[in-house]
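Subject: mismatched residue count in predicted assembly?

I count 1041 residues in my input, but I want to confirm that the predicted structure covers every chain. Input:
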Amino acid sequence: MKFSELVARLKAAEHSLILNAACDPHLTGVKPLEDAQAETLSYIEGEKFAAQVNTTAASALILPLDQALQTQATDRQIAWIATREPRLLFAQAIALFYQPFRPAPGIHPTAVIDPSVQLGENAAIGAHVVIQAGVILGNNLCIHPNVVIYPGVTIGDRTLLHANCVIQERTQIGSDCVIHSGAVIGSEGFGFVPIPEGWLKMEQSGYVVLEDGVEVGCNSTIDRPAVGETRIERNTKLDNLVQIGHGSKVGKNCALAAQVGLAGGAQLGDRVILGGQVGVANHSHIGDGVQAGAQAGIHGTVAPGTVVLGTPAVPYKLYLKASAIYSRLPEMHRALKQIQKQLGLGQ
Amino acid sequence: MKFSELVARLKAAEHSLILNAACDPHLTGVKPLEDAQAETLSYIEGEKFAAQVNTTAASALILPLDQALQTQATDRQIAWIATREPRLLFAQAIALFYQPFRPAPGIHPTAVIDPSVQLGENAAIGAHVVIQAGVILGNNLCIHPNVVIYPGVTIGDRTLLHANCVIQERTQIGSDCVIHSGAVIGSEGFGFVPIPEGWLKMEQSGYVVLEDGVEVGCNSTIDRPAVGETRIERNTKLDNLVQIGHGSKVGKNCALAAQVGLAGGAQLGDRVILGGQVGVANHSHIGDGVQAGAQAGIHGTVAPGTVVLGTPAVPYKLYLKASAIYSRLPEMHRALKQIQKQLGLGQ
Amino acid sequence: MKFSELVARLKAAEHSLILNAACDPHLTGVKPLEDAQAETLSYIEGEKFAAQVNTTAASALILPLDQALQTQATDRQIAWIATREPRLLFAQAIALFYQPFRPAPGIHPTAVIDPSVQLGENAAIGAHVVIQAGVILGNNLCIHPNVVIYPGVTIGDRTLLHANCVIQERTQIGSDCVIHSGAVIGSEGFGFVPIPEGWLKMEQSGYVVLEDGVEVGCNSTIDRPAVGETRIERNTKLDNLVQIGHGSKVGKNCALAAQVGLAGGAQLGDRVILGGQVGVANHSHIGDGVQAGAQAGIHGTVAPGTVVLGTPAVPYKLYLKASAIYSRLPEMHRALKQIQKQLGLGQ
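Triage response: the counts match. Full output below for your records.
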């Protein structure tokens, strides 16, 4: 497609300006900046990539609103479009060149589907899928091979289940969700009561709810509680290897990076963003819009809008100051000893 | 069931006292306190939930031995039973209303079972299960769909394997175990010896033993060692996404929360409790009854009965004091500089 | 096999010296030191295991170059061979007694293989495997049951895929790789752009490359990027539950222990060793030969050859000093207050 045609099809184009009208290359694909070739489009997020504008072989670029970068690109006869949000525009551009693999509708003959299952229209159900009694499926589902669905599950329209994921009993999954390979949704919460002989298993009679637009990463696990529900609200995205303990609630539009763990009963508000390997203790309350840096350990209550880091998690700025001093502890310790000596203070 | 009937069926009832004999509601289920409706039973663990006694719609409650809470409930005409361990009694109550899904005995025609396998009685073996040569299975097993069992595995009676777990060669699993979906037991330990060309793979000729009553969470991994065994002793419970390195030994009645990782050769005593995301280094020795808070990093030896926190893990009380001061480091650093200046010391 | 025959077959034998020529026991297997019986071989890595030479029941030992240990063994009539690298020699010895389970070549009739797949020679393809359109497979592959391969994947010779792993679209896997059970390779990177309504999904049009000799642990996940590739170079080994974010590059001969997480775009050099649960932030650059201790949190740039620890990661020696003082923070804080008081300084 011509660069000009691509620009016309980007939804954010009205906020942007185009230069190099004379230069309108044919584009065959999208590439990262360092690997781009002729006839490919790439993008630049900010100033620190400026040097690469001088070396990239891309024929077209999405640029930030930065005059210098635009001049550099023009000088090199690179077609470009500038915008406040280059990454957003690039996401749109990718979708013009690429669609992920989707199997055609149809039910593979090796799938084992209980006669009581309510199948929607146009489902694509792969080889060796197992769907058990009482499951209710929406329209236009895509269920990849070797998925197992336990009894009593409901799934909305257009939801996508990747190969080898498992959906356990009574889970409710909304529409437009994506469950990645190896994820396990609705399994028994880790509920054991100490008794003299060891542990009494608390049966987990509750269930998991994923609202519309939720995405669950590969090999992530979301447990159901003893009573009540575990709920992930609309449009929240979980990365790979995330653990959601029984009875947790995650609000709308959150993003939890890989290897995050929520202990049982954690409550997250809307638009919460947790970095990789963050841990959240039992029954914590995390307010709307909270952000936590990678590996933070959170317990108790975090006020809405706070940015936290560290274990135990403290406000971001405080953590940066304290952690900067951490490496000076040996020096501080020596200084203190010297002062004590000088003042005749002992220990 | 009537409340009075429920009370009669709870095993701990002899330690408890009942009030509101006049009030004996019909109960249809169990619910969390905040979602409880009429005709449901809920429970209260301690004082901090006191306010909810005044608002819950539950018809019956399990209460702690707290006079004030009991009076509140009586005043609201809620039937109740009081006990030292409300959570234990509630676990028993759930089991009166709820039984988890168990498929009926029988072998699904799509299961692929080697002729040399010794099948016990009454097994439920799901669709697309694969059981390889020389496997010996006990009675009353339940193997959900898409489970794969490698050669030479033995499994005791009444053990439950959830969908899509994998049991690799020579693993020995006891009776009354539960292996959750996606768990992998008996895979090769991470054994590589550095050589000039990179890494020499050390073949892992050992095996994994899970004693009776062990539970392994979803997507957890337990590796076999180069020689000898990796062993999880009786009644120990592992949560989701736990890693047990090759040659580790975990004692009896332990509980390891989600995302815990034990490096190779770690040795844990009995009744050890590790919080979420705890890491244990190679060849550590953790004594009986040790407890470690979430995200702790343990190496070396931990004395029996110790409660530890932090990385590197230190005794609980010390950690609380030190971590409280952590955020005051910038302030301490400033104070120290001021003192040094005043005394004409140092930098 | 006789001890003398074993010694003759060990490749490193020329660097070693043998004693006890008179003593040449028959050996039936390899065992860990503490469980060794008569007719078994074990090994000792260093001085700290010296006491066990006096108690082991092993008939033969691989020893370090330590005269005292050798004398102890000779005195107990244990056959032994001494070497600079006992673990390397023991790895070779194990391989003389043990070969891991490999299914015989052949394609199980329940495997579902698209007619367009190019199958190599001598493949062993297990029950319920699914291989989709356009996949190209090398010779002597071993694919265990319930593996799913999405369209457009290529796999080299002698590569081994364990049960229930998933290889997603366009992944390129080299020769002599091992993918362990439950691993997911080539899934969509966690790419979402914030928009007023929540998150816009960035399609992940890239792919994953695993070069020859790469090993990926159980339930590990390696994501493909929006554009370009995620690459793991030759002979790099990943343990279980490792997360490799989209667009990362891991160099040659690295070893990443269990539960390590690399955020998107992390760049690792060659021979990097990361301990368990290490986290690496977005777009970090880690030089050749860097080693990071367990649970380290790395961001930014780490110079080649550095050994780091802690979060945020600092050089190893500094971390040891600083963390040793961490527990003395309460004491330092008290001392500081006392000094301030004495000097009449406020806070």
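Helices of chain C lie at 3-9, 50-53, 67-75, 86-97, 316-326, 329-343. Marking this ticket as 'not a bug'.
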